[in-house]
Amino acid sequence: MKQRVVVYKKLPEHLNEQLRAEFDVTFFDRVNDGNRAAFLESLKSAHGIIGASLPITNEMLDAAPALKIASTVSVGVDNFDLDYFRQRGLMLAHTPGVLNESTADTIFSLILASARRIVELAEYVKAGNWKGSIGEAQFGVNVHGKTLGLIGMGRIGSAVARRAHHGFGMKILYNNTRPNPEAERELNATFVSKDELLAQADFVCLMLPLTPETERMFGAREFGLMKRSGIFINASRGRIVDEQAMIRALQDKTIHAAGLDVFEVEPLPADSPLLALPNVVALPHIGSATHETRLAMAELAVANLIAGLRDEKVPHLAV
Ligand code: DGY
Known about the structure:
Rossmann fold; 2 domains; seven-stranded parallel sheet; D-isomer_2-hydroxyacid_DH; oxidoreductase
């Protein structure tokens, strides 16, 4: 008998076909209030699940006694309780590597957009307000030659640092659980304490995974240590930041601006004070969202799932 797979994200058709050829598959483009009951029902006999952007709770896992593997179409695994996966002996696969460069591109676009006020000024032009040459009140600040502080220096952090060093002549400071000798050698990056980084960097870029240890680790104290001219960039996870403290820091001009791709609650609620702040560039969690990268992620996630269900070596296991 074929093993059963539940897909809870829209995948490219050729991947759906690949899954159908080998497994008995139930497809959900996304899970919402309308189909949640059917999704939970499908878990009862599932051997593998694949998808993204949905917290997979321990209750859901308890409802899936035959489950062997969950494959997420993301590098982040914060939608899962890793300890519970270990306890149950379940596999959790993810998609590192293939999204490094496009996510670094997004982060760099946030750096440029917030420093040069690209979104605000583009809206000004579209609103028909460009009547003469702009004055100082609309000037931005330089990116090239400035100091970039990376909190976290893994694969994506290194890709951001490469752009900053080679393309923009920036000085790179970083803080990480361990030193990154390659970044020090090739990008002249300097390991400093978190407080020193916050005090010296013109751009503070949060590059950490969301874990119980990093949740809300960046708050009023950290914003207070940043330069008043400092720009805060976050494309990792919103819940690493105390969002209220960030809003206060932006409103009070404790920091100059922020470029954000992620938020405590996503989609960002329409009444979020962040939407009213001109010094905020807000994106809808698009870090890896290019056609090429999302395809590569989906292909990798499907390959992970198939390997797990065939009892072969899974290319990228988080647990
Ligand atoms: C990831 O891969 O973790 C991205 O943030 C998309 O969720």
